Amino acid sequence: MKKLIVSLLASAMVLSMAACGNTPASNDDSQGSASGDANQESASGNADGSSNFTTVVEGKLTMATNATFPPYEYVEGGNITGIDAEIAAAIADKLGLELQIDDMQFTAITESIRNGKADIGLAGMTITPDRQEEVDFTVSYTTGIQVIIVTEDSSITSVDDLLADGANHKVGVQLNTTGDMFTTGDIEDAEKGEVIRYDKGADAVQALKTGKVDCVVIDNEPAKAFVAENEGLKILETEYVIEDYAAAMSKDNPELYEAVNTALQELIADGTIQGIIDKYIKAE
Ligand code: GLN
């Protein structure tokens, strides 16, 4: 009986590999090559054996992130920690995988998923139509808000001040984030100021401190962390844009997408995700 279950699982694996391969699995030859590929690709199953999926590295869930975005991902004591790291660990745990976190530039995250180097991108990443052309997003696990950081004595008091006719401010953002996208459209393209792009949000905040920019547009939780670390700065009450954060995944691995998305939905439903968020974000 045991043997039968094992061989059923093995053939289910081969079938699912054949189904996700590039060559049509309509004859014996292509089936053969699909099972041959199985030696190179790794395979893992759900803990209950109910479904099968492949991951970039066998037995591991490889997460791409940019660990400069507290409290979602940041380095502490040499380790990457934060809300997204813990969510990924909970998903990996559910799928019987070991979590591997790869730190990279924010811009490189979707690219590494598309190139088959990472299974999942978790980086306080907002679902946007442009990104949806490149990757699939899971269900959203939380929301973020684009806010404006200014110096305490700033004449900028609301988002309207930045978008007003005749406005001419220097706005710092993190390259390729939604803060960059929105201000590029609303301010730079509208000729209402200049957008200056930095690799890290923290670098934009340093530029604000040294007067190189007049404000920084960034997600609310990292904004709070940066303001707490730097004297003389404040976050304006005004909210620029409200967004949904989700995990980015490959469009070419529907089995893994299904497994991760289901695991995440279960973790949302049973309160695990809220528990992780509450650990890092204290109610005001
Ligand atoms: N939420 C923003 C975005 O998706 C910023 C994310 C980040 O900098 N890690 O663009």
Q: What descriptors fit this protein?
A:
single chain, binds glutamine
Commentary on this structure:
The protein is of the alpha/beta class. The protein contains eleven helices and 14 strands. Strands 3, 7, 8, 9, 10, 11, 12, 13 and 14 form a nine-stranded mixed beta sheet that branches. A hairpin with a 3-residue loop joins strand 4 and strand 5. The N terminus is likely disordered. The structure holds glutamine (GLN). Glutamine binds next to loops. Glutamine (GLN) binds next to loops.
Count of helical regions: 11
> What hetero molecules are bound to the protein chains?
glutamine
Query: H/E series, N to C?
Result: HHEEEEEEHEHEHEHEHEHEHEEHH
Principal-axis shape: elongated
> What portion of residues is helical?
40-55%
pLDDT under 50 segments (min length 5)?
A: 1-44
Q: Rg to the nearest angstrom?
A: 22 Å
Largest sheet: 9 strands, mixed
pLDDT averaged residue by residue: 86
DSSP, total strands: 14
Structural class: alpha/beta
Cα(first) to Cα(last) distance is: 57 Å
The proportion of residues in beta strands is 25-35%
Layout: helices, strands, pairs:
Blueprint: H1 2-20, H2 28-37, E1 44-45, E2 52-53, E3 60-65, E4 68-69, E5 73-76, E6 79-81, H3 83-94, E7 98-103, H4 108-114, E8 120-121, H5 129-134, E9 136-151, H6 159-163, E10 169-174, H7 178-188, E11 193-198, H8 201-209, E12 215-219, H9 220-229, E13 233-235, E14 241-249, H10 254-269, H11 272-280
Parallel strand pairs: 3-7, 3-8, 10-11, 10-12
Antiparallel strand pairs: 1-2, 4-5, 5-6, 8-14, 9-12, 9-13, 9-14
Helix pairs in contact: 1-2, 3-10, 3-11
The chain binds glutamine.
The site of glutamine (GLN) has 12 residues, from loops.
